[in-house]
# Entry
Amino acid sequence: MIGRRSDGTLVRRPLSPHLQAYDMLQMTSALSISHRITGMIWTAGAVVMVWWLVAAASGPLAFANVQWFLSSFLGVLFLMGVTAAAWFHTLAGIRHLAWDAGWGYDIPTVYKTGRAVLLGTGVLTGLTWLMLLISW
# Structure
């Protein structure tokens, strides 16, 4: 897009930020993009949950098919991924709420909360599956 600077000279600007503008090894960029990706994974998990509920309402054969898939290796792997995505997305969302309240903008705090989100995701995912396996 061609725009004008405040002094009137022409300047070429991109229409919107692109992935090439971000340093993917920088924690803030990686966590921001991961937050968006986990939102999509969360949505896929919700679709599978609707599939499970519709199958439960449809009858024993449909429900058995969904249960077979969810208890297979790929199904359990998917459920573990959705669990990790749910915890990451929730913790990153809390971090964003703190930013909305005006807290945590300084660089050291941004990195501390980013590490806390990553650590919390691992710990909470592990605890969730540990409790699930104990109660199973």
Q: What stands out?
A: The radius of gyration is 21 Å. The longest strand covers residues 2-4.
